[in-house]
Structures are given as C-alpha cells and as structure tokens.
Amino acid sequence: MGIHVIQSQRIDVLLQGVLASTSQPSTHPLQVLKAQHFIVPSPAIEQWLIQKLAEQQGMSANYQFHQRVRGFQWYAYQQVLTAHKEQVRKANIPRLIFKWRVHQALQEFIQPDVMSIDSSHPLHSIVQRIYDSADRLEQGIEKQLKKQKMLYWVAEQVADLFSNYMVYRGQCQRGCENMCTCPNNWLAAWGQGRSLDIEKYIAHKDKEVSAFTLQQTQELERWQRWLWQQHFHDDFMQMQQIDELFWQELEHPERQKKALSRLPQQIVIFTLLDLPPSQLQFLRRLGQYIDVLILHYNPSQEYWADSVDPLWKQRYDLGVKERYIAKNPQATDAEIADFFNKFTLNFNAEARESRHPLLTRLGKQARDHFSLLSNLSTGEEGKWVDAFVDDFPESLLGKVQSDILHLVEPQAKQYELAPNDDSIQIHVCHSTLRQLEVLKEQLIGWLAKPHEQPRRPNDILVLVPNLAEVEPLIRSVFPATATEQGVHLPVKIAGIASLDALNAWRAVIGRIHLMQGRFSFDEFADWLGLHATQQRYALEYAQVERILNLLADAGFKRGLDAEHLKRSLCDGDDDYRYSFKFALERLALGIAIPEHATFNQVLSYAKVQPGDFELIGTLIQIYQDLNERRDWLIMHEQKKSHTVEYWLQILSQDIIEFEQAGVAALKTVREIVKKQERMLTLASYYAETETGTLRKITLPLPYILDEIQRTLENQTAQAEPTGQITFAQIGQIRPLPYRLIVMLNLDAGQFPNRDTHVPFDLMDALRQQLGDRSRLEDDQGAFLDALLLAQENLWLFYNGFDVNDGEVRDPSSILQEFREHLALIVKPEPNAPDREVIEGIEIPTQLKQLYHLHYLQPFDPKGFMAENRYIRYQDHWFNVAMQIQQASGVLKPWANISYPLEIPDMLVLDSHQWIQDVTFPARLYLKTLGVENLGNVGVLDQNEPLLLDGLGRYTIRHFLQQNEQQAQPEVLLDQLPVGKVQYSAWQQGIFEQECLLERLHHYAPAVTQTTQRVWRIAKQLHMNITVPKSETQDWVSMEASSARAKRRAKVWLEYLLWLAYLNEGSAGTERRRIVVFSDQTVICKGISSEQARQYLQPWFKIWRYAQQQPLVLPAALLLKPLEKAKAYQWETTNPTEKIKLDEKSYAELLKYWNETGTFTSIDMTQNEACKLHQDWRFILQEQDAQALLQHACDEFAYDLYHPVFQFQHSE
C-alpha cells in the first residue's frame, strides 16, 4: 500500500514502469484473472497504452481504463457502496442534465414581455442581460425566441462553470470541523448563504478599472450564489455525503476487508493533464488502503516547482520597485537598488528565477502538477523514483530537450548548428491549403529518406489548432483513395466524426429542417442526393435524376404545399402553385390521365411513363413524411411544448427507420441519442421525490438537435492514435512521443486559441490557486509537449503572408518566443548581421537554414529551382510549372488543316437539321469532328414567375397555337405567373394570339398544311424536306417567336427548297413563302424554281466546306440588318473579282461581331452572331477571328445573302 511516483521525461520509460507493475508475481492462482485498472487523461493515451502493452506482452486483455481521476472516483464509490447504489447514481449528475436544469430554473424569469424582477433580486443582472439581447426586437414571438436562445446559451456556460467549481472550489483544504471556512471552498460558503469576499480575492487590476471590475464580479458572484444555493447545493451535499460514506466503509474495522475486496489492489495513473488538489487528496487517502502508482511525465529532472515565468518575474519586480517609490518618493537610485537587493535575498528569489525561460513560460501546467506531487517526494507515503534518461540526438532539437531536462540556463551564442541539421524546420506559407500541399511533399520525402530504423506513416503526428475548419482541406490534399496524381499517403483525422455519419444525420433531420425555409428545388435535391436518403427510400442514382426531372418539369420551384407557403406569403395571396404538392398532384394525375388536361382543378402531367409510377409513389411517401414533421421545429412558437424525453424518443424512431433501411452510418448518432435518454431517465428517476419536474423538462426541438450535432462533431473520444498519419486537434493527443511532430497554422490569432473563454467565470476573475486549468496554459503545454516528445523532427508551419495582398504576417506569440530562444543559443557566423530579410520575412541570420519560404502557388516555376532546399517532385505541378516556363508566347491553332470527309454511298439529309447546320457553321464543324462543346448548365429558377418575360409570353403563344381547342387558363397553370397577374397575363396571351390570327387572315384563312417529301438532289444525296401538303401559291405559317435574323434565314432556305423541289423551271415567281411572326410578317417571293436551284448551290458548297474547316459566317450575323429593315451595300473594284461588302457595311458587321454585351442582360456565350459564343470561342482560340470572318465574307457572303436582301421583305 502507498502512493508511489515514477517520473521521467520519456513516455517509453513510463511504459516500462507499467509493465513492471503489471507483471509482478502473485501467490494467488486466480490473481491473473483480475482486471488491471488504469487511470488515463484521454482516450488517446488509453489507445496508445493498449497498443504498446499488446506489443510488449503479445496480447492486451483484462485491462480496465478510467478517464481521469474523477472517472475512477465514481467507479470506486459504486464498487464499495453497494448498499447505497441508488444514492451514488443519483448523485452523479451529467453536465448535460446540469444544463437543462439551469435552463429550467431560469426559464420562468424570462417569460414576461417586460422584466418583472427588480434590481434587488440576485438574478437581476443575468436576467437583464438576457432581456438586453432581444431589446432591439419588437414584442412578440420573435423576441421571446431570442430570449429563449440566449437563456440556453447561459445555461450551457453555467453548467460548465458549476462543473468546474465542484472540482476546484468545493473542497475543504484545512480539515475544518463542522462548518468549513476555507477561502477557496466557495460552494460551502454559497450553501450557507455567505457571499465571497470579492474585494479581497479579486485578481490585481489597474486602479482605473478596478471599481468597475469589482462591481461586475460582485454581480456575477451574487446571481451564481443564488442559483447554486436554490437549485444545486443539495445535490452537491449528496455528492459529499457519498464521499464520506465511502471513507467510512474503508475505515470501518468490520467492513473494511469486504470493501477493499471490491477495489483493485493497484491502480496505475499513466500521465496527468489535470490534477485538482481535491483529486490528489483522494488518491493520497486511497493510497493508505491500496497501491496507487502515478507515472508522471515531467519535462525536467531538476526541482522547478518554484520557477516562475520570466515575464511574470519582470512585472513582479517592477511592481515591487513602484510600491517602494510610492512610499518613499524622495528615495535615491542607490537606496532603491539596496532595498531591492535585500528584498530579493529575503524573498528567496534565486529559487524563483526562471532558469530556463522556455520551460517556465510554456510549462506552467506541468509545473503546477509537479509542485502538487512534490509533497510526496519525502517517501513517507510511498516510493519516489526518478527515471530520467540523458539520451538525446545530436541536433538542435536534442539540444533544446537536453537543456530543459537539466534546467540549464541558456547560454548565448554557444550552440554551433550543423549545416545538415534539419531537426527543427519552420515553414512559411500563404494559406492553410498551401501548408497542406507543402506538408504532403515534405512527408513523402521524409518517409522515403533512408534511415537505420524504417520510417512509417504511424510515426507522424500532425497537430492543428482549428481541425474542424481545416478538415475539408485535409481530405482534399490527402484523398482517402489513391489517385494518379502523386503518391498516396494514408491519413486519419482523429476526433472528427466521419462524413458518412454526418451526412446520414443530415438525411434524418432533413425531413425536419426542410420545411423551416423556402423548401426550394435545390434544397430538396441536395437532401434527396444524400446516400442515406436514397437508402431509406430505396432509390438509385438514375431514379433520383428522373424524380428531379419530373418535379422540375411539373413545375416545382419552392414550398411544400399551400399550408407551408402561407407562412411566407401575405394575407390574401392564395396562389399556391409551383409548390412540391402542386407538382406531385400533376404527376399523380398523369398516371390516370397522360395528357395535358385539367381534372377537378388539377392540371395533369402528360409525360408520365410507366416506369415513373413507382417513383411517383415514392414521392407521395416522401410528402407524407415531410408533412408529418412540418411543425416539429416550431411547436414552441405555436405554444405547444413537448418534453425532452418525448423528442429523444421521436428522434430514436427516425434513426431506427433509417437503420432498418440499411443505413449503418447512424450507429454513432443512435448511441448519442440513447445516452441522452439514459441520462435523463436516470436523473428523472432519482430526482422525482425532490424536484418532480426533471422528467417533465421541456425544450424546443432545435436545441436538442443542436446538442446532438455538437456532440457528433466533437468526437473527442475518437481522438486516438492510428496506424496512419494522424491529424488531430492540438491538445487532444498528448503527451505521446512521435518521431515526427508537425504543427500547422501557428498564426497570430489562431494559436493559442483565446476564443474559448468561458463567460461569467469567477475562477478567472478571482485569484487563481495551484492546480487550476486554463485554455491558454493548455495550448502552451501542448506546444511544449510537442517540442519535447518529437524524437527526430519538429516541423512548424504558419502563414507568413496574407493570401490576398501578400503582406507579411507575424506568427503566433509562442512561435515567436521559441524562435527568439533558438536565436539566443545558436552561434552565428563571424561578422554576420543579426538578421536577414527574405521576401519581407525578418529572420535571425543563424536560423536561416531552419526557415523554408514557399511560394503562393504550387506550380510557381521558382519553387522548382535547384537552389531551393526543400523537397519538390516531378509531379503534375512540375508539369504545369514547366509549361509556364517554356511557353513561347504564341500557341498554334488547334485546327489548322482541313478535316477529310468520308463520302458515303448514299446520304439522306433532314432539311431542318441541314438548315440549322448551314446557318450556324460552328456547330456543323464540331459535329463533324465528333466534339461536343459543353456549356454552362442552366440553373433552374427557384422563384415562381411574378411576371411574364418574353420567353414566357412566347410559351403561351406557342401553346395557344398548338392547342386552339383548349384555350382555357386552367391548362396553363404551370406557365402563368402567380397571383392576380395570372389573369392579365392570360388575357395578354389571348390578345397577342388574336392579333397573330388577324394578321394571318390577311394572307390565308388558316396555316398551310405541310407534309414530308424526299428531294433527290444528286445520285448519292437525298433530302427529306417539308413542303405544302397540297398545291398552293402561298405557303403560310405562323410562329410564336419574333423575326430574328437566323429565323429569316430558315424561312429563306425553306422557300428555296420548296421551289427547287417543285422543279418548275423558269416558272414559280408568283409563289410566296409567308411566315407571320410575333412582331412582323416575313414574305419571300419573286424567284423561279431554276433560280432557287442556283441560289442553293452556294449553300451546299459551304455545307461541305464547313465540315472540313471553320467557316465564320453565321446567318444570325449576316442578316442582322434585316431586323432593322436595313440592307448591305456591295462593291467590286474589278469585274473579275468577287463582289464584297463595302467598307461601311463591313464596319457595321464587325460591330455586331465584336459586341461584348457589357450593358445588357444577354448571355453572349449563346449569341451566335458574336465571337463570344461558346462554340466560336472554342473553335477560334489562338486564331485571328476577324481575319477568318473577313475571308468568309469575301468568299461566300454575296452569293449566300445578297438574294435574301433582294427577294425577302417584311410587313
């Protein structure tokens, strides 16, 4: 029995201590079957210890691990106090229950619209803060929701505070009899209604702000004292009673043996990250009955419990001198110096000197632990063993580690840095992404470098201060599967929930969240695209695509149904078309009525296929599921409340529903929900007699979902070492040794993390005591651990340049201090300047070889220069850099030779397609080459139409022309704008259609009926053409579109093909091709069949030409003047030369060709008359587009388009 301490700076030595303690011989044959108990500070240490024990012993079994001393403390209570098992379970209150109880306790005070408690009430300040958070909102549900949200945040902070107070400020330290009077036992004072002496114990502040700070701190203490005394004091007294019962059992002469039989004979504590004095006292007392072995990681073998931070020492010394001068304003410098020397001698300041500033600056946490444990070094309570190992590599890293071990005061300019010493590297980048790209290259080189001991991925630990933010970038740079682009490195991100689990949870709560927004098509598509959603509804990818196409075509834009849209629409706006249900009803009716017709005020969808029936059934099921959950997130707004227990059960049912469909990734989420259920059930069961309200605690569902989301995202239990390259949050995997430790994002403002300060914390406001923890000291200690436990290399990364403007940025203050320490001890070259400036970064000259400055882009050619000291590879970035470096400035055209045509034995053309080809030769050329130039995918408009644009009016006119017998507004429900405008839009469409018919009747009573005929152009060339069905002089058509240039070309070619097919020789000049467009009527007349055949010859010529090489001669450009009733002027300087456009006409043509569309809403990538069209840009890249246009105009324009201007006119 006893409490024994083995301390070392080497974790592997402490591991040997574990092996020695667990392999001691025993006389009892069944001793081997008993579990061996370990207390570890984190799951990372537990997993590492299991792996190492298995490696050393060949197996790892019958070990029981407890997370921190508090975890074992409650285990011991449960084991010994079997007669009080229910009382023990009741006393152990989880932090989540604490939060919910605080929320329940304060909720009644925020219900009134105006704060009802006066300034004399202890809760006035905190309730006032909650009301102030919503003071800018008007009275009503929005203001109440804001107060509820603020209250839940306050409850979360208070739960954290009270949990810390119970550990650090709730124990008697002097052994007071009856009533405890210890100044640090706050909870005892609060339980007795006594306030703390804030003025006495407040931390020293500037005199100017001390009065304000004092008042604020007193208000904090006042409301926290009231809340503790009224709601949690009795619970804490039960915890202390459990502790008293435990020691009574161990001290009772008759029951002691039985109690000890339930406890392990030995408990091994493997390293410490926190050590509250109360828990150390528990271990010391327990050491009187069982063996307690503490394996303590201590950075230094010397006594340094009294060493202080050098910065603190400077401030303290300055304060001593200032106080002396204030009392003795007439004192001389000699008198001040004499006083300070005497004070230093009496204060024992030499023992309190820093000695090694790096250790005392960053190791405050470790110093406190050592100071607490040093009371055990006398050997009265057990053995104290120093197992330090003086074995360090001959490198700068080894020098720093050795100095800290021996607490050697740094000697300036004494260490001579070897030229090949790369044990410590500082990498300066522009962004986190660039850091990861550089890291990957460096890791490949490090793993491939020959070494006596082979290097493996599990020798590498990468630490990040903001892991959750960096996670997507890590997955991007280090893909999970091997790719063709470079070497694959296996990595594992520790402490982060898997993407599968997060996406599966998104699928579950998507059915709840979707209705709280616009419920747009894109939002629904994202949710339906989740793998878990597809598993739940037994859908495959192709089926999902078909569902989305059906919904889009049926008119779904936003909103679930009429009830859902009512929330966002004004009173009186009752047009609920374009919702999910509107489209679904159309699809469902389309099964029975597969045509465009109305039935019972529902417009049927005519394009439903037999294979869509099952998909529509699935959509109906999805709608029912969404409808069932539509109000879950807003029930608290509707004055409907449900208990937390009810919501957890409902969520469990949803999770089970998905799991039964085969979604295995929800296991983690189910365990989180079940754990919360168990906590609530147990807490409610044991608290029924006292409170009676815990089981009935009500919370809005959004708070519960957020709680589950936070727990899922913060998977600290999964922050474990892996057999791969491990990425982890700084501080989660410590203190563990790795051959290479990398720290990323050591930027000012990123590390140390100062954003996690807990508000309302009296421990921070008042004087601290030995053993207290702070986030700043945790981060400092994590950096020190990384420095001391890196066995071979330590790489430090930070962003030294702003990615936007390239300005120089400073690294973290901790990295700056480390750099200055290295600059102090490293010997510089003779006559070398103190510092050098490289790319704006100021670097100590003697540390120049430690620094690696990286360029902004991974393909920057400068990064591959031979003089760079860091590793680069001939990967895809190298190829890009080579291409940049070797660029000649002029690239050859991608198409500079004629494409050979294959002449088939028989070719049958379709006139419609042929007209499309010759009027836009770019697409003909790409089609011939077999190239599809993919453009931007059109984005579905998420808003229902409020007004009809030109395309909308065209759609209605086109529909009316095709369906004259169904001229009712009901059949256009999927096209007309919403609201009252739909009726005016319908009337406008009818009016425009009547105008078109009226103009049509000037030429014919009806549109000319057409038919298909085959025209034999040549022996091997035939064409299917459209011609009037019966003999007629006028071929009359009506179009809903306007008479644009390309459509005029189409009319002209149809006219020529018609006359050429009739083959009437010199006759046919009286025949007319008439097309009534929406804005004007186009008429072609005046040529004979013979002329038509002559005019078609140039068109067939360019059809062949454009298949072999680019022809820049789009009809949309050449006929542009016809849209404004203008014409080109032609000229020739020599009768033997071709007729060309005159200079003015060609300048006008160039104006259209070079148009940029800067001040228009036209998408120029779709404008065939412009060189910015996506096909023209693709074909004409690296070519002179204007020269090609000039050539095409000179060769073909007159023969093709002059007859159009001569024989086509508009009315």
Automatic annotation (TrEMBL):
It comes from the Bacteria. GO terms for molecular function: ATP binding; DNA binding; DNA helicase activity; exodeoxyribonuclease V activity. Gene3D superfamilies: 3.40.50.10930, P-loop containing nucleotide triphosphate hydrolases (3.40.50.300). Residues 912-1118 form the RecC C-terminal domain. One of its GO terms (cellular component) is exodeoxyribonuclease V complex. The keyword Cytoplasm does not apply. In the RecBCD complex, RecB has a slow 3'-5' helicase, an exonuclease activity and loads RecA onto ssDNA, RecD has a fast 5'-3' helicase activity, while RecC stimulates the ATPase and processivity of the RecB helicase and contributes to recognition of the Chi site. This is RecBCD enzyme subunit RecC. It comes from Acinetobacter baumannii 21072. The lineage of its organism: Bacteria, Pseudomonadati, Pseudomonadota, Gammaproteobacteria, Moraxellales.
